[in-house]
Amino acid sequence: MVTNLRMQLLLLLLSAILVKECNAELRRARVLHRISGVKGDLTEKQACLQLSLQAPKFWAGGLFLNCELKNYINGLGDFVLYVDANQLKAKYGNTDEHGFSWLVTRRLNNDTGDCTTASDASSRSYYSDTHGIWITGPLTPKFCEDIQGRQYNYFTVKKCTFYSKQPSKINKEPIGTYQLKLDNIADRFKVQMLLEQVNGRRPRCRYNALSITYFH
Asked: Which fold has domain 132-211?
């Protein structure tokens, strides 16, 4: 009985992953996600299924659609998917690209577990700052003070400045974006690893980060 229910859930998720709803306001997102506990290479269907199993209710409910795997290296999947922006807007109101990306990361992880995900809205603006990243999360008075000068696996944070604030609270919490200047080129794969360290395996994906410039 349990096996049959699991198979039904998997089939439902696959249909949500591969079928695009024509009546939804879809926004394209680029997502890096580390898949744990899986050895070897994965096909597109296998990788997308692993991603969807992080938050099956949001895939089954049509929030996420049309998963495509661009690359998969050493457990890190590079995905393109579409998000029903109407669902996010109905619950959280208007958000900018940073708020949208932050919500996508949270939802992909079911608003709960350890966060190994970095999301980026494909429609956002890009700039030529190759050493800069934006990081979005809870707005706190000492964020820059705490992170400036810190060393991570690939980077040292040289400078931190406040960038913007979401127009309204999300889950009763003010959310802000900070601009970080790093000592090395902010390659998006390395930025994803930096983000994992900043989140520190704390639950609920407190932060999302993305490179300011465009990387393929």
From this structure: Alpha-Beta Plaits (3.30.70)
CA distance 29 to 165: 21
DSSP string computed for 129-156: -TTEEEEEEE--TTHHHHHTT-B-SS-B
Check residue 53 and report its DSSP letter.
T
Q: 96 Cβ partners below 8 Å, 6+ apart? A: 164, 166, 167
d(CA 191, CA 131): 10
Write out the two tokens for 181: 């200047």
Stated pTM of the model: 0.87
Per-residue pLDDT of 80-125, as tens digits, reads 999 999 999 999 999 999 999 999 999 999 988 678 999 999 888 8
**Which pLDDT band holds residue 171 (cuts at 50, 70, 90)?**
confident
* Strand-pair partners of 84: 26
Q: Residues 140, 146, 149, 155: is their CA dihedral positive or negative? A: negative
Q: Measure the CA–CA gap between 55 and 157, rounded to whole angstroms.
A: 32
38, β-bridge pairs: none
**DSSP H or E segment with residue 199:** helix 188-199
The fold for domain 13-121 equals Alpha-Beta Plaits (3.30.70)
10 Å Cβ neighbour count for 151?
10
Domain ranges of the chain: 13-121, 132-211
What is the residue whose two structure tokens read 């969807």? 52
